[in-house]
Amino acid sequence: MARDNIYTAIAGGIFKGKKLLLPPQETTRSTKAILKSSFFNTVQFDIQNTCFAEAFAGSGSMGLEALSRGAKKVYFVEKDKAAFDILKKNCDELDAKKCVCFFGDTFQKLPQIAANLDEAAFFYFDPPFDIREGMGGIYEKTMELFASLPKSKVKLAAFEHISVFLMPERIGDFWLAKSRIFGNSAISFYIKKDDFISQEKV
């Protein structure tokens, strides 16, 4: 029996109200609306005219929200074929010319994306919760991936994770600026050491 389609909507920007199709919940886990709102309230004045990369992209809801709010180019990586097909459909519905979709493993594709960037970008990591079967150690592996990216290619990074997981104060050259918890989910922001020191002085 065919399932009923599940949607979310763009919350702000030029595509506000546009519906995005979501993959089946057993395939991917969509970002909570309150968490998404918190992220974009934090970066709203910095995201315009920048590049944005969404790892473990699923439907692409975070990257497409960034596009709606002024990002000039958005990169997505998703390895599940069903989710990738939905991601492509969502990009086509908004602005396919500003979206670059990679089908494959984030751990293989993201370093390639970073290496080819002409400027520093926002990176959003939303790996599967580590309590899911077969996902033990996924957060540590994702942090190693982030630490391996060229420092010059990262403007800010955000990690969406299960709230009981304690993120480290530092990952490579980046420092934890803040974390916010929303029920079972949390989001943690990492910025460069120089930016962190400047922030501490404010």
Give structural notes.
The protein has 202 residues and is α/β, with parallel strands linked by helices. The chain has a single domain, classed as 3-Layer(aba) Sandwich (Rossmann fold). The chain is 31% helix and 28% strand. It is built from 6 helices and 10 strands; from the N terminus they run E-E-H-E-H-E-H-E-H-E-H-E-E-E-E-H. The protein has helices at residues 33-43, 61-68, 81-94, 106-115, 138-148, 193-201, and strands spanning 6-9, 19-22, 51-55, 73-78, 99-103, 121-125, 154-162, 170-171, 174-182, 185-192. Strands 5-4-3-6-7-10-9-8 form an 8-stranded mixed beta sheet, with helices on both faces. The longest helix has 14 residues, at 81-94. It is globular and about 40 Å long. It starts with 5 loop residues before the first strand and ends with a helix. The mean pLDDT is 89.
